[in-house]
Design brief:
Layout: H1 2-23, H2 32-48, E1 57-58, H3 59-69, H4 71-91, E2 97-106, E3 134-145, H5 146-218, H6 223-257, E4 268-269, H7 285-295, H8 297-318, E5 323-333, E6 342-351, H9 356-425, H10 431-466, H11 480-494
Parallel strand pairs: 1-4
Antiparallel strand pairs: 2-3, 3-5, 5-6
């Protein structure tokens, strides 16, 4: 009795200690030092594997660096790896379960038993003992559930489709990243091209504004003429400062996309040929439609979702069937009172959830509705993709025309600027007119770069709609130099001029 009392006391004390320990858990926010350590470690991790930037940054290298080092894109890669890992782990669910058990038993009293006679009296004066006070057991068993195997099989098929969905989402991330890099590159190129010119023109305008105010103060010119002159200069300054503010953000955005640390100095190398100014589309619309329906990432994702929903219907039907379980176990017990201390045991068990028959039709209806929803989304996505093909092609064609127009305007403004400079030298034109001409030329050059960025953005949208992207495989297995060369080949071949049949015509 004393042993039982001590055991109960020990158990109660242990349980009470565990309960109190659980209740003692409180929120523990990070300290400033811990957060700083996390930030430092994350920055070191993100910059550790990067190839240092050497020389001017080209468009193809910017795209390659973004694909290889952009953190959001790396997250997509990890999501794809997670889906692959879930598929590999799910395959083990189809295997039989192998269970190993070990047990140790210690009693403070003998395991005595007695059997009464027909009148309820003990059949023996002393209760026989049937088990040792201390003994151990062990067993190794193999069990397999047919129903669990079927559900795991269909679950593995769904996980395989989820791996493909993760791959399609990565493709979409690649399209978006390439589009953003190409647009940001040309915006940054305009900032690099115009920064010095904008600063010099602002300085000239400030000087001219100060001279005009002195002239107004000294009453050398009529006050109205001086004020109109100053207003024109102020308008030019406001335009120039607006351009300066817009240009300042372009390089920061590009540095973020290629994962360069903030404040890292770099220069750009503008490309030439097809990389600089894509040409007209040479594929006919019907061929682009066929290509998009076969390769578009959004459409592929919806197709896989529809297949997952169809498999879910089969799983719902499978749950209505009885479950057949097979098991075999090798057992051992050190109990000396047993005649056979080791033996084998096999079993066949059939179980059936009869109440599942009541909910079965509802579950089947829900699964079939999910299939219809997925198929409807797939059909709607097909129409949306066809619309995107036509819209992207028209937007690209319009962007090309607007770029040609912007180039023509810039060319005219340049010639007008030369005339203004010659007139200022001949003292037939005022400095304000030259400043205005310089401002207009800067603005037209900026719009030319913006139009070029719009061309590349439209080209990327068209390529994304058609499902065209670099086939780069694993980014960890390819060097930055090789990836840059592959990007250059891909962009040069696919920007506006994919291979076309002999009867192809420009849009």
């Amino acid at each position: 009795m004393t042993l039982v009392t001590n055991f109960l006391r020990t158990s109660v004390a242990l349980i009470a200690g565990l309960v109190l320990a659980g209740c003692a858990v409180t929120p523990e926010p990070f300290t400033a030092a811990a957060l700083q350590d996390i930030v430092t470690q994350d920055r070191q991790t993100t910059q550790a594997a990067m190839t240092p930037l050497q020389g001017p940054l080209s468009l193809q290298e910017a795209v390659a660096r973004a694909l290889k080092y952009n953190l959001e894109h790396r997250t997509r890669l990890w999501e794809q790896a997670l889906a692959v890992g879930q598929l590999e782990a799910g395959r083990f669910d189809m295997l039989p379960k192998v269970m190993a058990n070990l047990g140790y038993y210690d009693r403070n009293q003998d395991a005595g038993t007695w059997s009464p006679d027909a009148q309820g009296n003990p059949s023996a004066t002393r209760a026989p003992v049937s088990s040792d006070k201390v003994h151990s057991t062990s067993d190794l068993g193999l069990s397999w559930s047919v129903l669990d195997f079927g559900l795991s099989y269909y679950g593995a098929k769904q996980n395989a489709d989820r791996v493909l969905i993760a791959s399609e989402r990565r493709r979409k991330a690649v399209h978006t990243l390439i589009q953003n890099v190409r647009t940001a590159f040309w915006r940054a190129a305009s900032a690099e091209k115009l920064a010095q010119e904008v600063g010099d023109t602002i300085a000239l305008a400030e000087t001219a504004l100060g001279d005009s105010r002195r002239i107004e103060k000294d009453r050398i010119k009529a006050p109205a003429d001086a004020l109109r002159y100053q207003r024109n200069l102020l308008e030019n300054l406001r335009t120039l400062e607006s351009i300066q503010r817009e240009l300042a953000a372009a390089r920061i955005e590009l540095a973020y996309l290629i994962n360069l640390p903030p404040g890292t100095p770099f220069s750009l190398s503008e490309p030439s040929g097809a990389l600089a100014q894509p040409g007209p589309i040479l594929l006919p619309l019907d061929q682009m439609e066929t290509m998009a329906l076969a390769r578009n990432a959004d459409l592929q994702e919806q197709a896989y979702n529809a297949r997952i929903a169809a498999v879910e219907t089969r799983k719902a039907m499978l749950r209505l069937f009885p479950n057949l379980s097979l098991s075999t176990t090798a057992k051992y017990d050190s109990n000396n009172f047993l005649v056979n201390q080791s033996w084998n045991e096999s079993a066949v068990q059939v179980s059936w959830n009869l109440l599942g028959l009541l909910s079965g039709p509802a579950q089947k209806a829900v699964a079939e509705s999910a299939v219809k929803v997925a198929e409807s989304r797939r059909a709607a996505m097909q129409m949306a993709v066809l619309m995107q093909v036509h819209l992207a092609a028209r937007q690209y064609d319009t962007a090309l025309r607007l770029h040609d127009r912007a180039y023509a305007v810039w060319d005219v403004d340049q010639r007008l600027l030369e005339l203004s400079r010659l007139g200022e030298l001949a003292q037939t034109r005022s400095p304000q007119e030259t400043i205005a001409a310089r401002t207009t030329t800067i603005l037209s050059l900026l719009r030319r770069y913006q139009a070029l960025a719009s061309v590349h953005e439209s080209a990327s949208k068209l390529q994304a709609t058609l499902g065209l992207e670099p086939d780069i495989g694993s980014l960890d297995d390819i060097s930055l130099a090789n990836l840059t060369r592959q990007i250059e080949t891909t962009l040069g071949a696919a920007v506006g001029q994919p291979p076309a049949p002999s009867d192809a015509r420009p849009l």
